[in-house]
Amino acid sequence: MLFLTVIFIQDYLLKSNVSETQANQLAQSNIIASQIAPYMNNVDNLYTRTYIEDIIKQHSFDSNSRVMVIDRERNVVLDSYDDFESQTLNVLEVQNALKGLNSANIYRHGVKHVMYSAVPIIFQNEVIGVIFMSVNAETIFTNVQSILDKLIIIFLLALFISLFISFFFAEIISTPIEKLTESVKKITLGNYQTKVEISRADELGELANAFNLMSAKLFQVDDRRKKFVSNVSHELRTPMTSMKIVSDTLLEQPHWEEDVYREFMQDINSEIERLNHIIDSLLYLVRIEKDEIELDYSVTYVNYLIEKVIKTIKPIATKKNIEITFISNSRIQINLDQEKMQQCLLNIIGNAVKYTPENGMVNVELLDMRDNLAISIRDNGIGIPEKDIPFIFDRFYRVDEARARKTGGTGLGLSIAQQIVQLHQGQIEVESGVDKGTTIIISLPKN
Ligand SMILES: Nc1ncnc2c1ncn2[C@@H]1O[C@H](COP(=O)(O)OP(=O)(O)O)[C@@H](O)[C@H]1O
Ligand SMILES: [Mg+2]
């Protein structure tokens, strides 16, 4: 392609330069011809001859060419270079000129190019001689060649630049996109820990960052899902196993006393209750996650909500002789999902009663704090060891399995409570010390 273009341009440049030189030379020859036409018949006269000779030598000098005056018999009458006189010049251009035509052509002499041109000398409508000119045409070729050399350099430069640009773009755009595609494929195969290493300050860098965030999130979700499934299976298997043991024992020996049957059946019954409890909590958790986007908000007096929850729990507390008190510095009304917030408070106040020994106390306090409100639930119960505090909101997490089993529960209560508080854009905090008691503080934004 490049080669063809160069050939084409070369051809065009040569043709236009040649025809320009031809026109130039013929025009000059015609000027000389018209200048000397009136004197041509008198060329033998020394005076006339000198006059004509002056003219052609001047032109020859001016245009760096050789000029000859030729008569009708093709004999050279005068030569600006003096050495061709009285010889016959029988070239094509002279023949044409004698027929009354202008012509100019380029010939190659060895390595040199020469242009021959000839025009008729016309006097009184008759061809009486010829002006023949020969000029070195080498400059035409060298000029064209030098233009071509420059062109080729420009072409090569353009080629180089375009190659460079395409490599540059490949590096800047294609490579990162390939990396991203590769990572997306890996993620599709379940490899959630995939990261793309593109550290750049532009849109692609941002995309890579967003991608890495997404894969980290996916990894987290997948990890949580796996743990959850394994925890659920474990939690469900435990009561199943104890029921299996109890029923196996019953079946092994056909003749048990009736009250042994009764006792074993009670065990099975309480395990079933436990299972039910776990399944209910699990279903509730699933429901919260499904409802995540739509909370059923209504304007509610938080005081009223807390009183309602305390009323529900009171019978259990009374059994343990635990007093539940409630104080509040004002009546506060906010937008919340009543059913969910009630469940949340039920779990937390329920825990306070559950993990406080007989004759203990539980204090609930509602505080108005300008932008948000705080509900604190304080008990003087068994408390939580420091090392367990970071985990108590995890699903199924229970402090000291043996102790927890005695009290009954699923380890889902706080997880549900935290989820509900977070759905309300709130926060939940714990302070606790073993045998000192526990305080849980829920803060909720007012709007
Ligand atoms: N008020 C509290 N005092 C002492 N320990 C508590 C209290 N609240 C929660 N915990 C501990 O945190 C664990 C998780 O609580 P939760 O999610 O409600 O599960 P559970 O079904 O066991 O009550 C409990 O098992 C208990 O060990
Ligand atoms: Mg609980």
Key terms:
447 residues; alpha+beta; Beta-Lactamase; Heat Shock Protein 90; five-stranded antiparallel sheet; five-stranded mixed sheet; 10 helices; 55% helix; rod-shaped; binds adenosine-5'-diphosphate; binds magnesium ion
Q: What would you note in describing this structure?
A:
The chain contains 10 helices and 12 strands. It has helices at residues 2-36, 46-63, 92-98, 138-188, 203-252, 258-291, 302-319, 338-354, 401-407, 413-423, and strands at residues 65-71, 76-79, 103-109, 112-123, 126-136, 297-301, 323-328, 333-337, 361-369, 372-379, 427-433, 437-445. The strands form 3 sheets. The chain has a 5-stranded antiparallel β-sheet. Strands 7-9-10-12-11 form a 5-stranded mixed β-sheet, with helices on one face. It has a two-stranded antiparallel sheet with strand order 6-8.
Q: Order of strands across the widest beta sheet? A: 2-1-5-4-3
By DSSP (H or I, 4+ residues per run), the number of helices equals: 10
> CATH topology of the domain at 295-445, which one?
Heat Shock Protein 90
The chain-level mean pLDDT equals 89
Helix and strand element order: HHEEHEEEHHHEHEEHEEHHEE
- Bound small molecules, which ones? adenosine-5'-diphosphate, magnesium ion
Poorly predicted ranges (pLDDT <50, ≥5 residues)? none
What is the end-to-end distance? 72 Å
How much β-strand is present in the residues? 15-25%
Question: In this structure, how is the largest beta sheet organized?
Answer: 5 strands, antiparallel
The CATH class name of the domain at 295-445 reads Alpha Beta
Tell me which CATH architecture of the domain at 295-445 applies here.
2-Layer Sandwich
The CATH homologous superfamily of the domain at 295-445 is called Histidine kinase-like ATPase, C-terminal domain
Global geometry: rod-shaped
**Portion in helices:** 55-70%
* Counted beta strands: 12
Q: Give me the secondary-structure category.
A: alpha+beta
Radius of gyration: 55 Å
